[in-house]
Amino acid sequence: MRTLTRLMCLVVVTAVFALSVARPKADTFRPVVRGKRGAVAAGHPLAAEAGLRLLQGGGNAVDAGCASILAGSVIEFSHFSFGGEVPIIIKRSNAPVTVINGQGIAPQLATRQFFVDRARKGEKEKAQSFIPSTGILPATVPGVLDAVVTALDRFGTKSLAEVMQPAIELADGFPLDELRATYIQRTRKTYEPWPTSAKLFLPGGREPKAGEMFFQPDLARTLRAIVRAERTAASRGRHAALMAARDYFYKGPIAKRISDFCAANGGLLRAGDFAAFHAKVEEPAHVSYRGYEVYKTGFWAQGPVMLEMLNVLEGYDIKSMKQNSSDYIHVLTETMKLAFADRDRYYGDPDFVRVPASELLSKDYASMRKSLIDDKRASLEQRPGDPVNKKPLVNGSPNPALTGQSRVPEAERANDTTCVNVIDKDGNLFSATPSGAWLPTVVAGDTGVMLGQRMQSFLLEEGHPNVLQPHKRPRVTLTPTIVLKDGKPFLVLSTPGGDNQDQTLVQVLLNIIEFGMNVQEAVEAPRFQTLHFVSSFDDHRFNPGVLNLEDRIAKTVADELAARGHKVEVQPAWGNPSAPTVIRFNSDSGVIEAGADPRRGRYAIAW
């Protein structure tokens, strides 16, 4: 009897223990990460650690965000490196939301006629009517350092040396992960003809394996030289020291060495382009959505697309549709198509073109555009509106010859982006979408700086707002996001994913606002994407009506969407190409919670 009693007690204890370790209600691969002193979310654990290190050292969200960007520029070279670009959005306590435009400009030698003539001549038997995706020609001026220095100068507290230290340590060597090893192998045929790239990515003439140490000694030397320039000028004050570090890169020996390399190897970048570039401090674009204030960059990036979407969606009872129902996916997809049609017709560098910004973001215009959505039928045409003349629709179909799948080889296509989001204990908000200079890339001589590919986002269509012009910024897909509630800090979120970025972010935001998900549930939930837009990359293809669904979305929903005319294509369960991170701030308790999408190795740390 005593043995039976003991056995029953053991069963009860085991059951209680099982309940205590049962999976939480949120059925997610990862837990929500929570803290009170700060949270950092990035594209790699070591990039997130770099930001956390700055928070623990007394830095604020801007210091931490900049450290994560710089660390990512070393370790995430498959999707972003130091020669790329980065838009940043910052909200400091008792200060307005501010955008730092860290997108580099096109070289002075980069003209539309240059690329048109190149296509006609069929140079190297690669005649193209678009700017190439790889090689030395599509490089814009690297914008990362100037954006980081500008952010630190205006809103940070730490020196560039402190913020750059984790990146320098990583350049001295870090254990290579599986993703980077795969990209080195997959893109080898494209970068290997460049000796400087082959030297870096094929040490000893072979592809490095995951777990092996990967070294970037030339880049480490460049980063240390930039820090020395800051320290040399330190006696003149923090601002002067930061400017000295910036000028060492953009007006000093680094710019000259990159310029000399480009001139000797058929590239277009010159020292004068570096000297002419400055990251810009700008006001954000924003709209209100059911009492939330959503902030994006200006119309030189695609961020306002999401704002246009939210204006239209505010006219629907989203919550009653239920998340990922056929009605919900149909309405969101048709809304996305309308917003992207406006992007493809009107968005461009405001320094060169007049963008009807206030008109595109007006609630009245959104109401007109909403009238075009047929609840029962998918649209197959591209339908931009006319916000200036208050018309819901104008003709605007893309060139039929540019429909269908990209003809650019897979190994030469755009390889995307990463993301950095930070909230500190004081509720300071930082969101960034670093990108560019990814594999396959050309390494600029002995600087270790990988050259970017962002000029491919320009069009060669004469008269288009996004047509290539010297010293113009291309209209990019990069789209950091800040959300306030009643004027108080609420969310920061961003994602890689190219043209899919704002499609993903609007779904994540609605998951939180409309459907009550926590941040981890919101990023892991099944997603969908339309390809009904002119691609921002490669050969700029348009795929009318194509709708990709992850196969975790019910088959009955897919069938209903196909019956409405959507060209449904089913992806693997976690096949959506975006991978956001999101951090939420509770203004009442001060608790900060972070979520990171497992689709592509995002990572979040809280303290």
Low-confidence stretches: 1-24, 124-128
Structural class: alpha+beta
Radius of gyration: 24 Å
User: Outline, from the CA principal axes?
Assistant: globular
Give the integer mean of the pLDDT values: 93
Number of helices, where a helix is a run of at least 4 consecutive DSSP H or I residues: 21
Give the strand order of the largest sheet, numbering strands 1, 2, ... along the chain. 1-18-17-13-12-9-8
- What share of the residues lie within helices? 25-40%
**Total strand segments:** 19
Q: From the structure provided, what is the oligomeric state, counting identical versus distinct chains? A: single chain
Q: State the end-to-end CA separation.
A: 51 Å
Largest sheet descriptor: 7 strands, antiparallel
- Give the strand content: 5-15%
Structure characterization notes:
- This protein is of the alpha+beta class and 607 residues long.
- It is built from 21 helices and 19 strands.
- It has helices at 2-20, 45-56, 61-75, 112-121, 144-155, 160-171, 178-186, 188-191, 195-201, 217-232, 238-250, 253-264, 271-276, 304-313, 318-321, 326-346, 357-360, 363-370, 501-513, 519-524, 555-563, and strands at 33-35, 38-42, 88-91, 98-101, 174-175, 213-214, 280-282, 285-289, 292-296, 420-424, 429-432, 481-485, 488-494, 528-530, 546-550, 567-571, 581-585, 592-596, 603-606.
- Strand 15, helix 21 and strand 16 form a beta-alpha-beta unit.
- It is globular, with a radius of gyration of 24 Å.
- Residues 1-24 and 124-128 have low confidence and may be disordered.
